[in-house]
Amino acid sequence: MGLKKTFENKKVLITGHTGFKGSWLTIWLLTLGAKVYGLALDPPTKPSIFEESILANKIIDIRVNVQNHLEVRKLIKEIKPDFIFHLAAQPIVKQSYIDPIETWNTNVIGTINILDAIRVNKQQCKAVFITSDKCYDNLEWHWGYRENDKLGGADPYSASKGSAEIAISSFYRSYFYKDESNIMIASARAGNVIGGGDWAKDRIVPDCIRAWTNQETVLIRSQSSTRPWQHVLEPLSGYLCLAQNLNNNLNGHSFNFGPNSDNTHNVLDIVKELSTEWENASWKIEEVNNKKMKESRLLKLNCDKALSLLNWKAVLNFQETMQFTKKWYSKFYYSKRFDTYDLCKEQIKEYTIASRIRGNTWI
Predict the structure, then answer these.
(1) In this structure, what CATH number is given to the domain that contains residue 140?
(2) Using 50, 70 and 90 to split pLDDT, how confident is the model at 295?
């Protein structure tokens, strides 16, 4: 069954819809014919893909903090969503050191507020809670983490995501585990997404784009840090696939959504590949050894479970991932006739075609 058949004319609530991933997911669901409701704070960056795509005019746009449990409960009762995608979060590791309380309140209490709202309202619903690959207690080994590996985290962000996972599991086992439950939940773990429309601070692609569009040299820290980079549409396709297949057999499960193994590259690889689209692109290497701020240098996911139970797999290689990203930013900054929303729809269509050709028939 294709995604359009699943989501067409369905009410879908996205928390964090004004963010980078939330905006891309909003656009994708609109192309599928869903009636989208968004619950979030104002866009976190300027520019933002949400504002550039004029999404406020295309959906029911609600500005509420997920930490406000009474408002969250009221809205979910009024909307009666068929599906919920919970993306609202404080997503930056560095910021979690600066403001750990806000990070924990948003990432843990915000998640609990969504869980409790669907518990209290008792309306039929399928909910996918997006956490992070950083929810694992990362020992920086060279094989991928599986869904049953130990949760944890040295920094406030990672620890908050591990805690959110524990909360999700607790609510499932306490309230939603019975076969007759009309509420089904699952968690999705992904990370290190790149793609057009990301302008967040302290992220390698936006840092490069900001510097190079202003003819400046970008400062590269931790050039050897290795990540399994993936285009934003890869994990989003996983979230949609999970929601599509969520049933009693998968209720309460967690799934990893990561890229192909050949997409594992270090930060400098990303910078060099990205620079091919920009004239006079320059960078300066500065290895930073900040013992007060620990961030993982190596992190991989094992996605065998998603392949086995959902028939989901990543489809883009590293060069394609970078090409999607470079093309988006190049058009944004240099095309005279440019529509952000249309470009996103074009890339979603291109990704969908490639995904079907490479085996994701469910899409």
Answers:
(1) 3.40.50.720
(2) low
